[in-house]
Amino acid sequence: MASVLVVEDNPEHQAVIAEVVRRLGHTATLAGDGREGLAAAIAARPDLVVADVDMPHLDGIRMCRALREHPVTATVPVVLITAYLPPGDTSLASAEADAVVPKPFSVKELSETLRTCLESPPPRHDPAFTEALLRSLDAGVVACDLDGRLVVINQAVRDFFGDESLGVPARDWAERFGLRRHDGTPLPPDEVALYRALGGEELRHDGVLAHDRQGRRRWFAINARPVRDASGNILGAVAAVHDVTAEHHQHQYERCKTEVLKALVHAPDADRAGTEVLRAISGELGWPYLRLWLVDPVTDRLRPAATHLAEGAPQIGLPQVLGRGEGLAGACWQSGEPIWVPDLGAPDLPVAAEAEHYRAAVAVPVRSADNVIGVLSSFTVEHQEPDPALTVLLSGIAGHIGGYLERRRAEELSNQLAASIGEYIALVGHELRTPLTSIGTYTDLIAEEDDTTTVGEVRELLGVIERNNARLRSLVERLLDLSALEAGHAQLTIGDVDLTAVITEALPDAPIRTDLPARLVIPGDRARLRQVAENLIGNAVKYSPDGATVHVGLTADDDAAVLTVSDAGIGIPSGERDRLFARLYRATNARHSGIPGAGLGLALSRTIVELHRGTITLSGNDAGGTIATVRLPRRSGTSGPAHPGHRDGTLGSRH
């Protein structure tokens, strides 16, 4: 004897259907509408459901779909009776009913249909089919009884949490599997969705974060509701678990991109921009260690430009300099392609051993047009398989960084050029008019002398004219030399140069404290490098008070030689450092000191250093005065013809 649930809002039709069921030898349970019928079916699973299509509260099609979605009633055969829709209507087919009986129907027709569904049920009534159905669902399905014991758990959930999850009560899942909210905060046991459903709540899209057995993070949206009998009493709870990791990552990546763009827009300078970009990536993606490497133009090596370490994250003892192919960043630089390292514990990896506290890493190249100018590398303590969407995001961020650096350089050059044109004209006028005034006025004085005046009487006047003439000649010669170097008309003569000997020859008769190696050979133009040394050391001596000692130091590593000249002189006025090294520009305190100078020595020095593919900077000395620093490449091939003129905001000149 089978149990048949009759769901029909028309009393007369309900009675005749129930009579047909009884004549077939089965018991009939009656429900007056779709909502009541659904609750009755879930509370006490029938062997067959006969339902009208057109009913209040919940029509027969929607009720049938709800029965198919519920794990308790998913395999119960359903017969739909319709006067509203023709049997071939697509909505009837979508409800997945086992049979459709149109109205008006005869007793014989209805009897044959019910007998067929009860005596020859579809394959889905087989328990093996039920198990296969639950296993094939993309969504996870779990159900528990009134005591919180799991009675249904499909394969999708078991694959994630393990087969032992079936024996874990609903309330213990948060602690047992380390469940968290979507924001990463711990999930209290009383907030587990299935457990809350036992208390009568109906939950939709409840967010849960969990880690699979490989340590990978997954985000889930859970729909849960209580299971009730016909009287509304709670018999248990059921939950559908949907993996929304892809959707979460999409929103996460969009937020990350937005925060990175904000950081680049509001950063006052390149150094701050790098720091803020790494902080934004770490905050949005949860990567605890990030480093931005940029190619050093002097040494042609990668050097760290910015590093972000999240609070409490382990430090990584990465080298401060990387060549092509060295370490993760060097390998990325060499290949010009993103590199993923899912398992840092695997052998033969292009990553430093000091990253042993981390599980995975990724590096993407930072490009400027077709050139790789840096690398963005990230490390995480969690397992991370290569993610194409994340690769696209990080590559896009690296592209924004490269574009930002190029725009900053272009803007700085444009601003300096715009500011320097008028200033240069004014400075040239000043430097020419001053000696010309002396020459002209002293010539006038000589011309006004009596014809009987002897040369001896005007010799002093002639001396003034001679000195200013020599000053003009020197000014013109140095301007022409500088222009020839910048235009490429004057070429460097490159050879092996002992920089120690060059500096020693450039030392004047003044108190100089030196710290020089016995010998330091670099590729370069000996005569031009001596010009640089003479200008820097002479500048330091000239602007230092009497009795003060100038310090000249020379150090080197495998890649670069570093010359430093420090003094305790008048220093550089605040706000003028970014204007130094412009042709003919002298700092205000130098112009009014009475110390002679044309403002070309350091401009010429900068051009010579840049032609050697080096850098020159001026900074303040803690003890007062100025420190000039020159970095020159030691390896052959990094020096050679170059185009000077790339300005740095820290560069400038005093004389």
From TrEMBL:
Superkingdom as given in the UniProt entry: Bacteria
Every PAC domain range: 203-256
Key words of the record: Kinase, Phosphoprotein, Transferase, Two-component regulatory system
InterPro entries in the record: CheY-like_superfamily, GAF, GAF-like_dom_sf, HATPase_C_sf, HATPase_dom, His_kinase_dom, HisK_dim/P_dom, HisK_dim/P_sf
Annotated transmembrane regions: none
Region (Disordered) location: 632-655
Segments forming domain Histidine kinase: 427-636
Modified positions (4-aspartylphosphate) in chain numbering: D52
EC number in record: 2.7.13.3
Coiled coil: none
The reaction(s) this protein catalyses: ATP + protein L-histidine = ADP + protein N-phospho-L-histidine
PAS domain boundaries: 126-162
Residue ranges of every copy of the Response regulatory domain listed in the record: 3-118
A Pfam match: GAF_2
Cellular component, GO, one term: plasma membrane
Main location: membrane
GO molecular function: phosphorelay sensor kinase activity
Matches recorded under PANTHER family: HYBRID SIGNAL TRANSDUCTION HISTIDINE KINASE C, TWO-COMPONENT HISTIDINE KINASE
Protein name, UniProt field: histidine kinase
Protein species of origin: Actinoplanes xinjiangensis
